[in-house]
UniProtKB/TrEMBL annotation:
GO molecular function terms noted in the UniProt entry: carboxy-lyase activity; flavin prenyltransferase activity
Catalyzed reactions: dimethylallyl phosphate + FMNH2 = prenylated FMNH2 + phosphate
EC number, UniProt record: 2.5.1.129
Protein name: Flavin prenyltransferase UbiX
Function as written in the Swiss-Prot or TrEMBL entry: Flavin prenyltransferase that catalyzes the synthesis of the prenylated FMN cofactor (prenyl-FMN) for 4-hydroxy-3-polyprenylbenzoic acid decarboxylase UbiD. The prenyltransferase is metal-independent and links a dimethylallyl moiety from dimethylallyl monophosphate (DMAP) to the flavin N5 and C6 atoms of FMN.
Boundaries of every Flavoprotein domain copy: 6-177
Alphabetical keyword list: Flavoprotein, FMN, Lyase, Membrane, Prenyltransferase, Transferase, Transmembrane, Transmembrane helix
Residue numbers binding FMN: 14-16, 41, 92-95, 127
SUPFAM superfamilies given in the database record: Homo-oligomeric flavin-containing Cys decarboxylases, HFCD
Signal peptide limits: none
C-alpha cells in the first residue's frame, strides 16, 4: 500500500496579519513535507490585498490545492479526508467564535470543526487586541475542545531586527506544533549563558 502523503489545511481569515498565513504557505512549499490545502475567506482576501498588495491568485499559487470558502462539499469538509491538522493564520474573532461554538457556516469553520471532532491538531493564530470577555471565553472554549490558541506574540528575547524576523518566529512556532522540522525559521533559545556569551562575541568582533 502506498504511503499517504502528509497534508495540512491552511486557513486565512479576515484579521490583520495576513502575512503570517502567506509566509506559512511559502515555508511549507519550500520544505516540501506536506501537501497544502488552502481556504481563504472573502475578508481574508481583502486584508491580504490591503496589507500585502497581493492578489488572490498570488496567494493561491503558494498552495497545492485551493478550496472555495463557500464549497461546503469540498474534501476537507469530511473527517474521512485524512490530514495532519489545520492552522488558521490569522484567525479573526468572528472565525474563532464560529469554531468555538460549532457554527460551521462556511468551509473554513467546517474544516476546523472536522479537526476538533476527529481529534486532529488545530492551531488558531488569534489576532486581536485588546480582548473582550467574549474573545477570552471563545478562546477557552476552543482550548477545552482541543484547539491550540496561539496569538502571534513577538519573542523579544530573540532580538528581532525586522518585522520579517517577528513573522518568521511565529511561522516557525506553528511548524513546531505540527512537528515539522524547519531549521532556523524561528531562532531557538539556547539558554541565558549562551545568549550572553554570543552577545559578548558579537561585541568583541565589532570593537
Amino acid at each position: 500500500m502506498a504511503e499517504r502523503k502528509k497534508r495540512i489545511v491552511v486557513g486565512i481569515s479576515g484579521a490583520s496579519g495576513a502575512v503570517i498565513g502567506v509566509r506559512l504557505l511559502a515555508a511549507l512549499r519550500r520544505l516540501g513535507t506536506h501537501e497544502t490545502h488552502l481556504i481563504v475567506s472573502a475578508s481574508g482576501a481583502v486584508t491580504a490585498a490591503q496589507e500585502l498588495d497581493l492578489a488572490r491568485g498570488d496567494i493561491d499559487a503558494l498552495a497545492d490545492v485551493v478550496h472555495n470558502v463557500r464549497d461546503i462539499g469540498a474534501a476537507v469538509a469530511s473527517g474521512s479526508f485524512l490530514s495532519d491538522g489545520m492552522v488558521i493564520a490569522p484567525c479573526s474573532m468572528k472565525t474563532l467564535a464560529g469554531v468555538a461554538n460549532g457554527f460551521a457556516d462556511n468551509l473554513l469553520t467546517r474544516a476546523a470543526d472536522v479537526m476538533l471532532k476527529e481529534r486532529r491538531r488545530l492551531v488558531l493564530v488569534a489576532r486581536e487586541t485588546p480582548l473582550n470577555l467574549a474573545h477570552l471565553r471563545n478562546m477557552t472554549l476552543a482550548t477545552e475542545m482541543g484547539a491550540i490558541v496561539m496569538p502571534p506574540v513577538p519573542a523579544f528575547y530573540a532580538h528581532p531586527q525586522t518585522i520579517d524576523d517577528i513573522v518568521d518566529h511565529t511561522v516557525g512556532r506553528v511548524l513546531d506544533l505540527f512537528g515539522i522540522e524547519h531549521g532556523e525559521i524561528a531562532r531557538r533559545w539556547s539558554g541565558l549563558g549562551d545568549e550572553f556569551a554570543s552577545r559578548g562575541e558579537r561585541k568583541g568582533a565589532s570593537a
